[in-house]
Amino acid sequence: MNAAGLAAVALAASLGLSACGGDDAKASDGTFTVGHSEPDHLMPANTTGSYAFDVITELFDNLMDLTKDGKAVPLAAESVTSDDQKVWTIKVRAGQKFHNGEPVTAQSFADAWNNAAYGPNAMGANDYFSSIKGYADLNPEDENAKPKADKLSGIEVVDQNTLKVTLNDPFSQFPLLLTYPAYAPMPKAGLKDPKAFDDHPIGNGPYMMDGNWERNKQVKLVAFPGYTGTRKAKNKGVTWKSYSSADTAYTDLRAGRIDVLQTIPSAKVPEAKRLLGDRFLARKMSTTDYLGLPLFDKRFANPDLRKAISMAIDRQGVNKAVFNGSYFPADSLIPSIIPGHRANACGELCTYDPAKARQLFDKAGGFSGTLELYFSNAQPTYAQWMRIVANSLRDNLGIKDIQFRQVPASDYFSLLSDRKEKGPYRQNWEADYPSPQNYLENMWGSAGNRMGWKSTEFDDLIAKANKSPDQAQANALYNQAEDVAIREMPMIPLWTWAGEGGRSKRVDNVTITPFSTGLIATEVTVK
Amino acid sequence: MWRYVLRRLLQAIPVFIGTTLLIYAMVFALPGDPIQALAGDKPVPDNVLETLRDRYNLNDPLLVQYAKYMWGLFQGDLGENYTGQSVSEMLSGRWAVTAQLAVTAWVFELVLGILLGIWAGLRRGRFADTLVLSGTTLVIAVPVFVLGYAAQLVFGLHWQIFPTAGTDDGWPMSYLLPGMVLGSLGLSYVARLTRTSLSENLRADYVRTANAKGLSRARVVGRHALRNSLIPVVTYLGVDFGNMMAGAVVTEGIFNLPGIGGQVFESIQLKEGPVVVGAVTLLVLIFLLVNLVVDLLYGVLDPRIRYE
């Protein structure tokens, strides 16, 4: 130890300080602590960040809830039904109360959704309301025009507990969309003072705020005594502590100062596995990495070239080299935790086969000029696996001239939206709600895809599935659309992420789902 | 002397305007669209982006943005960050943390640094001197983050003398370990400066005279040699206040202290001009003030120094 170290001991000794371990410091009061990153907002409609969702899903009961295997079941709703998938009738369960005592009614939902969809409010999750009729009137194309309306014409409060929602187009996945945190209800007080609501959200969920949100420090929640729903808390409360460094959060988990950590930094995973034993919590996630191809660049127009690139990448090799083998090489466009996933849907096109890849590459007439690979600096692993991918393309396809374009994270998405990239780019997607539609329509649909890919066959199949009243039938149609996209391969699936967390000895029954619900805090038991 | 103070304070005004403009321009010049960056990969409709850009004056040219910012500043309004939080609220919450950390570190480096320096200086060439010199070399050579993580693991996790991270245990417990890590570099320099300066002065003529007069050893060292030797040390302590703010970015991150350092780092990444300018401006003001105090202290240490 150096001088500072010696000094530390001397100082501590001279002040007569006793050791205080985390475990004894907290006498069991039935609450537990979770380490995570600081949320951006706690008003449900103003955020799309998963750290905010962690807290919001505990404070609010949405109409529908997700089961652990990704099915939508009623929560604040009694039922959500539709004959044509376009007009939906929602019955709100009677007798529910907000944390301030206000009853939860159909109006509470209508108010919250109108507030979220109104353009000038500039809510972060505004776009998630675009499927409801009247959205365009609240969000005019011309950015400077004043909106024609401030209420969605598609939302009608029939009576105190009935809501009628009309969508622009039939959408069979609407009940799943209702699980998205932005669809939470709001009490009158929240609409009156949104700023105060952000600091102290008043929800209808199993937990309520204990004091205000202490920014950059913690959000304290206690069990809500007036809760009547199905998610009643099995503990007295949960505190979400903010960490700016994942390494520090992990150290605090080891020191027993926090009870649950959902993400252990990947470099510490081997150590954590050894140290935590059965308290190490591994799970599949919904986030999937893809390699998008700019089809607006003529050099990428031939599907055979795109397939060749896909087959030249050794997904399992990258997984072993970069992710300790814990990730899941993609075998379809949709991750395996999403209902509607088919094992090996991608078939040989996602299987490493350098000889076949070279064949396809030559058949496509090769590649001319510099191949530029785009990725952001948001994660150090991006540069690692991009290098391996580049080597594969060089060795297996003979593309000699490959360059890296590592872009600052704050610039990356603007670059892609402006289509300034001149080569394959890293893209990922995390499910908003567990439906194949959420992946396929958002990322491959002609309306919004980044690649510049157009397929009416694909769009028609998605529209058909969106109309289908039966979920199994809908998934079959989504899968047909998926096959079209695989055949053309405008975007190459790579691998799905794994989540690695841990818990302390104080808590049990810790389940972390791969969906926006994340940690199921209500089920955690505290010793 | 008061004219000197006034003149120094007036000089701070152009420095203040210059730094704010410079920082504003630098944040403005960073690539990327801060509003798009907030949303990540999730879709944001154009009209929402536009509303937000308007709200934060992002469509204006640099000088107009800066003028609007300064106008707000004169009315006591530091503006908002891009998630709508008031900057003054954000900073006020974090100042207390950084101030406690900085004072802990500063006191640590001041007291321990000078004591070690005296100890080594009085025993030049002997064991104590070698120990202090090699110890401080080691600390200077090791990067702050290595020192931080090591201290956290040893004193926080294994021995559990200090909390590993966070501010839950309040001052001083939560701040001792990070304060010592942050102050360790300065401590090394203070110890070395004091040691060298003191051992030089001990050989000066006036010390020989004082000794010849038959003054006690304590009086010779304390009143005569040490007082003179502290001028370079005090200068360093003033300058080091600025270094400490830079070091705080790392230290606050490791020990999860929600202070100014971490805020500035985060806000630069998010291109949040008003937050960066607000925080850095305050840092500049404090820096100017600390250095004014340091300059005035010269007179106390050496009465020959006069201020005009």
From TrEMBL, chain A:
GO terms for molecular function: peptide transmembrane transporter activity. Keywords: Signal. CDD domains: PBP2_NikA_DppA_OppA_like. InterPro entries: Peptide/Ni-bd, SBP_5, SBP_5_dom. SUPFAM superfamilies: Periplasmic binding protein-like II. GO terms for cellular component: ATP-binding cassette (ABC) transporter complex; periplasmic space. Residues 72-449 form the Solute-binding protein family domain. Residues 1-21 form the signal peptide. GO terms for biological process: peptide transport. Pfam families: SBP_bac_5. This is Peptide/nickel transport system substrate-binding protein/oligopeptide transport system substrate-binding protein.
From TrEMBL, chain B:
InterPro entries: BPD_transp_1_N, MetI-like, MetI-like_sf. Signal peptide: none annotated. It comes from the Bacteria. The keyword Protease does not apply. Residues 95-298 form the ABC transmembrane type-1 domain. GO terms for biological process: transmembrane transport. It is a multi-pass membrane protein. It holds the Pfam family BPD_transp_1_N. Keywords: Cell membrane, Membrane, Transmembrane, Transmembrane helix, Transport. GO terms for cellular component: plasma membrane. CDD domains: TM_PBP2. Belongs to the binding-protein-dependent transport system permease family. This is Peptide/nickel transport system permease protein/oligopeptide transport system permease protein.
